Prior knowledge:
The protein is α+β, with helices and mostly antiparallel strands. The protein has helices spanning 7-18, 71-80, 132-142, 198-202, 204-208, 263-273, 324-331; strands at 2-5, 32-38, 41-47, 51-57, 60-63, 66-70, 86-91, 96-101, 104-109, 126-131, 157-163, 166-172, 176-183, 191-197, 214-219, 225-230, 233-238, 257-262, 283-289, 292-299, 303-310, 312-315, 318-323, 338-343, 350-353, 360-364. It has three domains: 2-115, Roll (DNA Polymerase III, Chain A, domain 2), CATH 3.10.150.10; 126-248, DNA Polymerase III, Chain A, domain 2 (Roll); 251-364, DNA Polymerase III, subunit A, domain 2 (DNA Polymerase III, Chain A, domain 2). The protein has seven helices and 26 strands. Helix 1 (7-18) runs antiparallel to helix 2. The radius of gyration is 25 Å and the shape is elongated. The relative contact order is 0.11.
Amino acid sequence: xxxxxxxxxxxxxxxxxxxxxxxxxxxxxxNNILIETTSEGLALTATNLEIGIRKVxxxxxxxxxxxxxxxxxxxxxxxxxxxxxLEMTLDPSTQSLGLRCARFDTHIKCIExxxxxxxxxxxxxxxxxxxxxxxxxxxxxxxxxxxxxEARPVLTGVLxxxxxxxxxxxxxxxxxxxxxxxxxxxxxxxxxxxxVPARALAELARVLKGEPGKVEVIISxxxxxxxxRAGSSELxxxxxxxxxxxxxxxxxxxxxxxxxxxxxxxxxxxxxxxxFARDSANVIRVKAQAGALTLSATTNEVGDSxxxxxxxxxxxxxxxxxxxxxxxxxLGVIGEDEVELLFDGPLSPGLMRPPGKEHYQYVxxxxxxxxx
Length: 372
């Protein structure tokens, strides 16, 4: 194998691909990145057998070949090189990879490519197409609501439902629920329900960054793998086996109080007031009455904070309490200048959404506290 490429481009791709590598693997080969020449350049692949990431970088291929190199060493070393042409040459008999760039002449010990576990190929299965920005945005708006508790594996994933031209993403950890709907180009008869690990979806934006506008989503025939492909980048993930809870029954169907308020002002206010809730389970109290929304938090040993802001309040007055972090998570991704809060009494779940729209809904369970 003999190839020439630019260290800056290679370094960036190595950093992204390395994110699929687990720090807890017992198989030495999984600490390596598969490097192989293709007609488009140099393909880099890494996996932890759950998630796989593949990127192709532009390169001049003089001699074809493949090997696997230690991910961390190669990534760190390439990241320090000057932006001069980097020539990589493999000695097949010793599996030694020579790297020559400017004043550097380096050799890295590699393992044969045949040792690398063969990954599933995304050529067969059901396909749909989604706009890249829409999909990345939908993932951002939902995956933070997935659980991190491995005791309930199903909740550590994001439910991805395909119904013809509609795609719905939903995630919940039992305390909050995020649901996002978006359009997709798919066969009208295609129906699928997949649970994709939130960890895998969290990498999507990084892996597909800079690629052209459409993502091809491919569901394997066996319904145990999903592939996301855009341009020369690809993310593969195993699916979580199990039945996702019926989340739709949690979404409030009616409300007795509707509040419309500036997203940036509410974010700033919650962030400030919640500093006084850090030692008391992060609970902030919300009070809505004609024309105003009041937020407050108290911790006996620390002190208290209260802030009143102008708001468009429609319906009956209400006092309710929430975990501040859950509120901030939603405000950070809502993507609109204003946010609508809907309540139906102090013990019913609250609903946050962009005003008058239903493509994104974020439900938070209230916290029971004594109200002043």
